[in-house]
Design goal:
Low-confidence stretches: none
Strand order of the largest sheet: 2-5-1-6
CATH class: Alpha Beta
Order of helices and strands: EEEEEHHEEEHHE
Radius of gyration: 15 Å
Number of strands: 9
Shape: globular
CATH architecture: 2-Layer Sandwich
Helix content: 25-40%
Mean pLDDT: 86
Number of helices: 4
CATH topology: Alpha-Beta Plaits
Largest sheet: 4 strands, mixed
Amino acid sequence: MLAGDESAGNLQCSSLYLTEPIDCEEGTPDFVNAAVALKVDARLSPRDFLSKLLDIEVEFGRELDTMRAQGKNLARSLDLDLICFGNQELNEEGLILPHPRALQRRFVLEPIAEIYPHLLLPGQQHSMSYLLENLTSAEAVRKL
């Protein structure tokens, strides 16, 4: 989820991508990933927006406390990550922006590069498309 991007219009969505699980228990099924960029109300803080995303996850059956306690990436009905919030950089308890592992994961970069190939995340000098082309990760990501 990319929030606060003034150039995004109201909503931009990538294709869906089938991705192999990373750092998960053996036997975890593949995931379906996508990127969404949207313009949010300027009065909304990144923390408030993240809270709304977590509320949506719970509505779809995600049990947040159980997953955090186990410390593993588990299969779940819905997982919404806030990758960036405009040009803001934050490092707070429970919220780091831009997302600290976004640039290491093909399943994040590929959908973002599809809708915003020239996007520079705060603090970065290279675009999404450049980072994707130069990623050494071998994870399997397939456009559906």
